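Lab manual, section 2.4: Encoding a predicted structure.

Procedure: take the sequence of the chain (207 residues), apply the prediction step described in section 2.3, and record the output as structure tokens. A sample record is shown.
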Amino acid sequence: MPTVDVYNIAGEKLRQIDLRDDVFCCEVKPHLIHDTLVWQSANRWAGTASTKSRSEVSGGGAKPWRQKGTGRARAGTIRSPLWRGGGVIFGPSNRNRAKKLPKKVRKAALRSTLSMKLNEHVLKVVDKIALEDAKTKLFLKALDLLGMESALMVMGNIDKAAMLASRNVSHSKVLDVRGLNIYDLLKYKGLILDLDAITWIEEALCK
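Recorded output:
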């Protein structure tokens, strides 16, 4: 079992705990991480952009003018993409880009990513994450004391002050453990977990 230090929010070492081998000490499988990231990105796609092709634009039933003799270029319909107000060539269409991915693969990808963070020594465990006030400077100070610049802070029970204080910080994020996902784990270099979050993760990823 990997053993890690437990700190408080002030960066002081309190004790050590053991993490589960089957969650934090797994083989890192990049292909599973990639597949899960693609799945998550595809499912987040809104798919609301839409344009009309020449078959969907209204009007254009009659030929605008005769084929010859007017001095103008030939035209068969006002719905032509060459005309103002005509159809769009190869424009975006409203479609569902959602993909399916087995739950076992998603869990394995999370285990791989957590193991990778531990191997890279960018995972820190704190006993509890709580700020005195919802101020950005307190949040940045806590990150600095923990030795983190860019970090995903995952909580078992969300602290409202920390959540509000982190909103103006683009390089870090506070996240409820129930929303743990590959995208956020990879986006931020560091990972900070509180004890409640570790308990939830170990129970959820071992089922």
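Check your result against the sample. Helices lie at 21-24, 30-44, 103-119, 136-145, 160-165, 182-187, 195-204.
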